[in-house]
TrEMBL record:
This is ADP-ribosylation factor-like protein 11. Coiled coil: none annotated. Keywords: GTP-binding, Lipoprotein, Magnesium, Metal-binding, Myristate, Nucleotide-binding. SUPFAM superfamilies: P-loop containing nucleoside triphosphate hydrolases. Belongs to the small GTPase superfamily. Arf family. GTP binds at G33, L34, D35, S36, A37, G38, K39, T40, G84, N140, K141, Q142, D143.
Length: 209
């Protein structure tokens, strides 16, 4: 299924927990993607576990979400859902600064704009502030005819071009009914833990020199 991090790929539970600065501090996550990809629908499905009819986001929405499954159960995520219209995309950089993780939502049926989504994703991830920030790609609208699967979305977005050090996972999803969202959040949590562990071990090694 396309992601570079699998369910069991982040080490043992104890080391994962040790890697986090505090279980009481919410993890900061930014939700990005082109307009009409389903970001706000995904946010409020995660928040309330129900479908809310949404309008295009002008600016941002911010909600605290609790993980409900696996290792991230009970963990708080502060999720910033930022508008995806072209005129709003320059603002993305302000929201991604010092974030713990990025959720990039893609309309899996919108093949005409997949190159545009790729350009915006790569531009965001290659910003120095976002160096190696874990990425969860929600391959959304899987319920619709013609939706690309996770492997096709991964290829279309050029995620392998980011290099072996970049942690990412592509999660098939349907935000309207909630399919894939909890699993995706769990994968993002594990990638964040792995990244913090790598950063911490690198910091220790630099001190020994």
């Amino acid at each position: 299924m396309g992601g570079s991090v699998g369910k069991g790929g982040s080490g043992k539970g104890g080391s994962l927990l040790d890697a986090l600065p505090s279980l009481n501090s919410p993890l900061h996550v930014v939700m990005l993607g082109l307009d009409s990809a389903g970001k706000t629908t995904a946010l409020y499905r995660l928040k309330f576990d129900q479908y809310l009819n949404t309008v295009p986001t002008i600016g941002f929405n911010c909600e605290k979400i609790k993980g409900t499954s696996g290792r991230c159960k009970g963990t708080s995520f502060l999720v910033w859902d930022v508008g995806g219209q072209e005129k709003l995309r320059p603002l993305w950089r302000s929201y991604t600064r010092c974030t713990d993780g990025i959720v990039f939502v893609v309309d899996s049926t919108d093949t005409e704009r997949m190159d545009e989504a790729k350009m915006e994703l790569l531009r965001t991830v290659r910003t120095p502030d976002n160096h190696h920030v874990p990425i969860l790609v929600l391959a959304n609208k899987q319920d619709l005819p013609g939706a690309k699967d996770a492997t096709q979305v991964e290829k279309s977005l050029g995620l392998r071009e980011l290099g072996p050090a970049q942690l990412f996972h592509v999660q098939p999803s349907c935000a309207i009914i909630g399919d894939g969202l909890a699993d995706g959040l769990e994968c993002l949590y594990e990638m964040i833990c792995k990244r913090k562990k790598i950063s911490r071990s690198g910091h220790k090694n630099s001190k020994r020199r």
